[in-house]
Amino acid sequence: MRTVLTRRFSLWVFFASLLVWPALGCDRPEDKPLKVSLSNTEHAGIVKENKKSGTLHIAVSAVISPEETFVLYKDLLDYISEKLGVKIELVQRQTYEEINNLVRDNKLDLAFVCSGAYVDGHDKFGMELLVAPVAYGEAVYYSYIIVPESSPARDLGDLRGKRFAFTDPMSNTGKLAPTFMLAQQDEDIDSYFSEYIFTYSHDRSIEMVAYSLVDGASVDSLIWEYINTTDPSLTSRTRIINKSPPFGIPPVVVPSSLDREMKENLRKLFLSIHTDEEGRKILEKLHIDRYIVQDNHQYDSIRKMRTVVPDQ
After folding, report:
1. Sign, CA torsion 193/197/198/202
2. What are phi and psi of 12, to 5 degrees?
3. What percentage of the chain's residues is helix, strand, coil (to nearest 5)?
4. Same domain, yes or no, for 240 and 304?
5. Are residues 223 and 280 in the same domain?
6. What is the pLDDT of residues 155-165, one digit of tens each?
7. Three-state secondary-structure class, residue 104
8. What CATH number should be reported for the domain holding residue 71?
9. Using CA atoms, how far apart are residues 246 and 249, in angstroms rounded to an integer?
10. By CB atoms within 10 Å of each CB, which of 141, 151, 159, 201 scores lowest?
11. How far apart are CA 289 and CA 111, in angstroms?
12. Are residue 221 and residue 164 in the same domain, yes or no?
């Protein structure tokens, strides 16, 4: 029955989104995987799958939708290209797992990933933490449970039997954290919510709540705060009813097989971006203060939650 209900709800959301997303200037949920070249060009073009000499393949996990990723990260990736004298190709996929698999298979040189995906990749195949951002003065972030502004809900307990949006099965803030909250009350998502879906980006989850397509969602605090700054008309249609404890912030990672010299060059570059005017402007656009060296143990709280919710 759960599968039937979830599929039925997904179809309903899909058809509803045909009306909503065009008005928002955002693609619909069936966005296809995209791989584009960003270096010194104003036009995105499809590139080949194989790795090329003198090219860094960089992925940004689908924390936000593909078109927003392109807009936000283009300047940063062009900056890396210029400073290191290499071509950059941006790789996009729909799910966190797909990006992790590319790192595992050495098809990427660097990736911006979710904290949950980092923990999974580090513990399963040695994904390495390169650096982590400091945003809004902290090297941590939170899971927000949000509802439509007009909702009577005041906490997660008020969402029993309601429609809920998760972000990605591997997401910490968008899946693990709220699942853990329920597990602490001997509840599970299959019996707790009447229907639930995966939106595969936090901005879409926020949109789903803002337009009352779902009764609640769990989202990355960094994305909610970013949108609250850049498009408060959207976040004003939502309300935060729960804020989790802090988690280690989503890091920048590399495969363990990456050339040591390149790894160190990338680390030094990230750690110094905030020290020059061009770099500071790029970070300001991303709402990042600077990058720092982050310890793997900063993500242990996520590992502890995964022991309680082992199928995450």
Report:
1. negative
2. -60, -45
3. 45, 20, 35
4. no
5. no
6. 999 999 999 99
7. helix
8. 3.40.190.10
9. 9
10. 151
11. 19
12. yes
Proportion of the chain above pLDDT 70, given as a percent: 81
Q: What mean pLDDT, rounded, does the chain reach? A: 85
Question: Which tokens go with 176?
Answer: 């693990």
Tell me whether strands 195-198 and 34-37 are parallel, antiparallel or unpaired.
unpaired
Q: How far apart are CA 10 and CA 189, in angstroms?
A: 16
* pLDDT grade for 312, boundaries at 50, 70 and 90: low
Which residue in the block uniquely carries the two structure tokens 């709402």?
287
How far apart are alpha carbons 134 and 84 in whole angstroms? 23
Bridge partners (DSSP) listed for residue 58: 90, 110
What does the block give as tokens for 215?
């009764």
Q: Which of 189, 223, 244 is the last residue of a domain?
A: 244
Q: Are residues 130 and 196 in the same domain?
A: no
Q: Which domain holds residue 300?
A: 34-138+249-308
Q: How many domains does the chain have?
A: 2
Distance CA 225, CA 287 (A): 9
